[in-house]
Amino acid sequence: MLQFGKKAFVIAVSAVVVPLFILSQMKSLFKVQRGVVIEGIGSRLALDYVSMAVSMTTFPVVADILSELRLLNTELGRLTIAASMINDIGTSACLIIRTFVRRCLRMQLSFLEAAQKMTGYVILIVLLVFVFDPWARWIVSRTPKGGRVWEGHILMIMLAACAMGAFSDAFLLSHWEGPVYMGLLMPDGPPLGTALVDRANFVPTELLLPLIFLNAGRWIDFTMINHPTVFVGLVLYMFAGYAAKVLAVMVPAIYWNISVRNAAMLGLMLNFNGLGQIASYMTYADQHSVKAVRVVPITLTLFSLSIVFGHDSPLPQCIHYSSLVSKSMNANVLLLPQAYVAAILSCMTMTVISSTLVAIFYDPLNARHVMGCRTLQHLEPQAEFRLVASLLDEEPVALLLDLVEASRGNEQSPMCVYVLHLTEIMGRATSSLIAHKNKKGSIDTRQMDRLHRVFINYEQLREGMVVVQPFTAISPYKTMHHDICSLVIEKNVHLVIVPFPRKEPGANVEVHQAARSIIPNVLSQAPCSVGILVHHPITGFGQTVPLQYRYHIKILFWGGADDREALSFGARMARHVAVTAVVLRFLPAVDLEMDEDLLQDEDLFNEFKTEHAENERVAVEEVAVSDVEEAVAVIRYMEKDYDLVIVGRRQAWNSLLSEGMDDWSESPELGVVGDILASSEFANSSFSVLVVHQYV
């Protein structure tokens, strides 16, 4: 979140200050009786707390809704997360400090009680910083990579959280403070954060949350609306706050060169409401009319304790819920039943409106505005070639390294490789895209893993002929294509390679399923050509390109845009002095009517033969086939002593090739020929397959 810095801070502050100011000026619209009661609403202070609830943005709610909308790892989604986190921490801290000061000024706390609370805070901080934090990091260091945390550690952390809750209560602190501060210091992600989520996330999410929402809905009574004018006025009052929040966010966002549409979307995202606001309104409701409020402190106490173990974020979800409940109860802030109904309905309606508008109008990739042809076919031979190599695990590293070396072509053609390690988000709520090398070329190795170091070593071996930019994307599998496509757009990439492990014994089923979920989205949304690298599940982990490097490729060419892109990539590889290439062209047994597509095929194929006419490492073969059976037979019986077979995803004869093939196709995202080469018939072959899709 630090990458947004000042931008996120200013947006977060604006989202709180401006709505609070606007709503404070609108309070005079409501009639005050006897100086303390607002007619049809309740206590005069209740309106202040409703204004605070409208202005605050609860980070866990925003993260959850963005995840549902599949926007968590978009640029605007990350900015929203950063701003909501700052907003969340700031409003919660201000509310706690305000309540503490008010109680001290009204002599509700004696000097002894105040001293006891301060002592409790000091001891709590010492225990957490010097005992719990080192202990948690020691557990992480003792757990082998990919291993499971010992169950005894999980049990001891749970008992420690219970003890922290008891300690907080004994020193007159809120019951939630000890467990929540433990959650703040908990190392997120695997192994510890993930293990805690797996063990204890069920209770708060599947049991306690539904109970809270059930209680919130049970006491919505429309028959209690006895002042319709005041009811409508409160609804308009809250929506005025929401509108002010959107405008307050838009101004600084536009100043930082965010488009007007995206600035409005950012404002709507920061208006996502959920459990934080609902718990607040339940707390403010009249305790005699809305009896559900009596169970809220108990429920939220259990929730705050459980969420530490089920936390999936740096800020546990209960930090402000419990603070609002415990502090506001003491402040005797009350809402009348009709005001409670207005608050809940306004909160829900705003969330429905904002989430719907964001889902309809926010285009995270904005690929329609990408200019130019990002294809290999249209890339000049001496122009810089930009490639994104994405990896889900370490298995295809050696293959990708060989492929990158072959893609280098001749020494006059510069090349930049963006190595993107795709990591599933676990034990945390915030996605991130981490750049391990800054603009000056210095490398931050703290979060780099082994596969990044292999490519960095390769860059150093090539001495400036190849530039490597390592990245790590931490996000859910269902939205990983956003990270790939956003990097493609930002870096003006020509080709992105996505590994696709064959479904064979020993294969990682989770990685295979993840690849199958990512590839269709990349094919449809990436504004550049896409290469799907079909490989065997276990390929070894190469440290660098061997000194005696030799690479044998075969290109299958029928015709069409994808085959032309495959041939263009093969032509680039064939310029490498250590690459041997064979082009197998399939010709129809009967002449086809010449059209624009066939003319482009002929022109490109002739260009290839002319360029490599004197290249002894390049051979061209042609074979005539009349139906799909003959084409499949040629593929089955071709030589298998190649390192890589390159084929287009769609062929000019796609209708012929796909005839009768759709029923048994296992991987339609690979196309007809790609699916054949990835089938079990070629399980014993040593070559990998690169299925190329041209961006049009």
- Across the major sheet, the strand order is 6-7-5-4-8-9-14-13-10-11-12
Q: Helix fraction?
A: 40-55%
End-to-end separation in angstroms reads: 35 Å
Average per-residue pLDDT, rounded, comes to: 81
Rg, alpha carbons: 31 Å
List the domain count as a whole number.
Answer: 2
Estimate what percentage of residues fall within beta strands. Answer: 5-15%
Low-confidence parts lasting 5 or more residues at pLDDT below 50?
Answer: 287-333
- The assigned CATH architecture of the largest domain is 3-Layer(aba) Sandwich
- Secondary structure category: alpha/beta
GO biological process, one term: regulation of pH
Pfam family, one: CHX17_2nd
Protein name: Cation/H+ exchanger domain-containing protein
GO molecular function, one term: antiporter activity
Tell me about this structure.
- It is a single chain.
- By secondary structure, this protein is of the alpha/beta class.
- The protein folds into 2 domains: 5-108 and 201-361, no CATH class; 369-693, 3-Layer(aba) Sandwich (Rossmann fold).
- It contains 24 helices and 14 strands.
- It has an 11-stranded mixed β-sheet, sandwiched between helices. It has a 3-stranded antiparallel β-sheet with strand order 1-2-3.
- Helix 2 runs antiparallel to helix 12, helix 4 (75-105) crosses helix 11 and helix 9 (202-218) runs antiparallel to helix 13 (296-310).
- The radius of gyration is 31 Å and the shape is elongated.
- Residues 287-333 have low confidence and may be disordered.
- InterPro entries: Cation/H_exchanger_TM, CHX17_2nd, CHX17_C, CPA2_transporter, Na+/solute_symporter_sf, Rossmann-like_a/b/a_fold.
- It is a multi-pass membrane protein.
- This is Cation/H+ exchanger domain-containing protein.
- Keywords: Ion transport, Membrane, Potassium, Potassium transport, Transmembrane, Transmembrane helix, Transport.
